[in-house]
Amino acid sequence: MHTFPQLRKIERKYGDRLIVVGVHSPKFPAERETANLREAVLRYRIEHPVVNDRDFAVWQRFGGRAWPTLIFIDPDGRVIGKHEGELPFEKFDQLVGGMLEEFEARGVLNPAASPIALEAIREPAHTLSFPGKVLAADDALYIADTNHHRVVVAALDGSIQRAFGGGEPALIDGPASQAAFQQPQGLARSGASLYVADTENHAIRSIDLDTGMVTTLAGTGEQARVANAGGPGRSTSLSSPWDLALSGPLLYIAMAGTHQIWSLDLESGTVAPFAGTGREGLLDGALDRAWFAQSSGLTLADGHLYVADAEVSAVRDIDLRAKQVSTLVGEDLFVFGDRDGEGDAVRLQHPLGISARDGTILIADSYNNKIKRLEPGRRAVQTWLGSGAAGRADGPGPSASFREPGGVCAGRAGLYIADTNNHRIALADWERGEVRTLIGD
Questions:
Q1: What integer pLDDT is reported at residue 226 of this predicted model?
Q2: Alpha-carbon gap, residue 62 to 116, rounded angstroms
Q3: Nearest to 68 by CA among 12, 18, 25
Q4: Rg for the chain, CA atoms, rounded
Q5: Nearest-CA neighbor of 236 among 276, 193, 269, 198?
Q6: In angstroms, rounded to a whole number, what is the distance separating the alpha carbons of residues 279 and 266?
């Protein structure tokens, strides 16, 4: 996901002097479906052709070993370079610029041959666009309207009351009418302060709900390329903060880009790693030795910070008193599926959202299109909502359907669900598990 913004910059800078072709070689079964790939192309604002390499034919032909891998091909069709892993824009730009200079000097560059007729897969206008997270309070709902690059405040009946941002994606502080975000995700609230994980801006923002002012608390706007030691919030680079959980003056951050959990001290303004070494994987133990993998959801309950650890399809438990990390369900980067049960028998597939209520953890099992319940003491998981088939249907829990739900939040009336690829917020009541659409076309 970090490569897309860099590619976007390269495409805009060099225009028809180069062609970018994406090759999607899927890790998860849900990612093999072309319909799901279409949604991902829209969600990440990809404007170049993308091949669904569902059987890894292209991957094998070019010797793929890592996500992402960049292959450079000259105008004569010869492979002239390969880079495994992410590439900062500065190095990417220098590399591409040098290649183009060489091709121009050799007279082999032909920009007129570059236009490609792309299939039109534009989504119609929606009230919400790929909402990533939802936060329920006693008096309002707060929604990360992710691809509209805004944060929405709605009444509990679903009527939208206010919006912050919503223009072109950018990192701009100021009044609600002037402020800008870029693909926001996680939310947390304390009194009149609403905190926002501004994911593609690699920043933590604050919205004063009384005055409407938006302020950047942490992040420089540039992505941190490696895990760092932290420091003053405004001068410390972050990497794809995805969700938030608030406990007193500490704001916990799911730092998906560096596979860590961070904390922001709201009193001192300092931000630092809290758990995880930065290595991608699943390893339990002390806070400074544990491994996480693209952590994307957080919730607090009874002295525990629970983590939806997406790339290892796991739910992790950080005991805040003992300062230890353990795994409730999930095993490794390539162990996933859709299986209820207890302990090591359980399988999830890329869970993104998590919320706690009365000793139970609710999980947005995103790629399985389900909402599941987890009892931490027994490590027992049971499907609560969703048939598993991708779709959009209200009704009783087992027959309701979702499309890659990314966020859940327990509220008084029920569980609020950010049904991301359906562009809606749904509500399931606690007593019957009846699902109905609250916001969404």
A1: 82
A2: 22
A3: 25
A4: 22
A5: 269
A6: 27
pLDDT at 149 (0 to 100): 97
Between the alpha carbon of residue 55 and those of residues 2, 35, 59, 415, the distances in Å are 24, 16, 9, 37
- Please state whether 118 falls in left (phi above 0), alpha (psi between -120 and 50) or beta: beta
Count the neighbouring beta carbons within 10 Å of the beta carbon of residue 294: 22
* pLDDT greater than 70 at residue 123: no
Look at residues 412, 357, 349, 332 and name the one whose alpha carbon lies nearest to residue 386: 349
pTM: 0.92
CATH class assigned to 133-439:
mainly beta
Which of 381, 423, 379, 432 minimizes the C-alpha distance to 402?
423
pLDDT given for residue 85 in this prediction:
84
Q: Which residues pair with 250 in a beta bridge?
A: 247, 265
CA distance 70 to 95: 12
CA distances from 113 to 19, 93, 97, 117, 318 (A): 10, 22, 19, 12, 55
State the DSSP string of 340-395.
Answer: -EEGGG-B-S---EEEEETTEEEEEEGGGTEEEEEETTTTEEEEEE--SSS--B-B
Q: Mark 4-42 as b/e (b = at least 16 C-beta within 10 Å).
A: bbbbbebbeebeebbbbebbbbbebebbbeeebbbbbbb
Report the distance separating Cα 441 and Cα 438, nearest Å: 10
Encoded amino acid at 387, one letter: S
Query: How would you label 177-201 residue by residue, b for 16+ Cβ within 10 Å and e otherwise?
Result: eebbbbbbbbbbbeeebbbbbbbbb
Locate 330 and state its tokens.
């999930």
- What values do phi and psi take at 131, rounded to 5? -60, 130
Please answer whether residues 209 and 202 qualify as being in contact, where contact means their C-beta atoms are separated by less than 8 angstroms. no
CA distance 172 to 182: 10
Q: What percentage of the chain reaches a pLDDT higher than 70?
A: 97
Pick the CATH number of 3-113 from 3.40.50.720, 2.30.40.10, 3.20.20.220, 3.40.30.10: 3.40.30.10
Phi, psi of 291 (to 5 degrees): -115, 145
Domain segments of the chain as ranges? 3-113, 133-439
| Residue in 440, 430, 334, 316 with CA at minimum distance from that of residue 384 | 430
Q: Which residues contact 318 (CB under 8 A, 6 or more apart)?
A: 261, 275, 287, 304, 305, 306, 307, 324, 325
The model's confidence at residue 117, banded by pLDDT at 50, 70 and 90, is low
- Decide: 75 and 103 in contact? Cβ < 8 Å: yes
Enumerate residues 6+ apart whose C-beta is below 8 A from 209.
153, 192, 193, 194
Residue 344's CB is within 10 A of a number of other CB atoms, namely: 12
CA distance 332 to 337: 12
